[in-house]
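Run log, item B.
One chain of 73 residues. Sequence copied directly from the ordering sheet:
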Amino acid sequence: MRTKKIILLIIIAFVCFPIDMDAQCAMCRAVLESESTGKAAEGINNGIVYLMAVPYVLVGGLFYFIYRKMRTT
């Protein structure tokens, strides 16, 4: 039982305290590092976040639709 609590605490720590990482392909990284203002790098990172969020929104909408259908029948 104690090991389950430890594992749960470790999982919660990983979820609650994410590590910042910069991950781009080698060419994107070279171009973005050569720029002095950093505006393009910020734009690329924001675009990655938006692309990552869309599937979660779609799946959440699907589950909400299924929940509403199951509740009315």
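Observations after the first pass:
- The chain has one domain: 2-72.
- The first helix runs from residue 2 to 16.
Flagged for discussion on Thursday.
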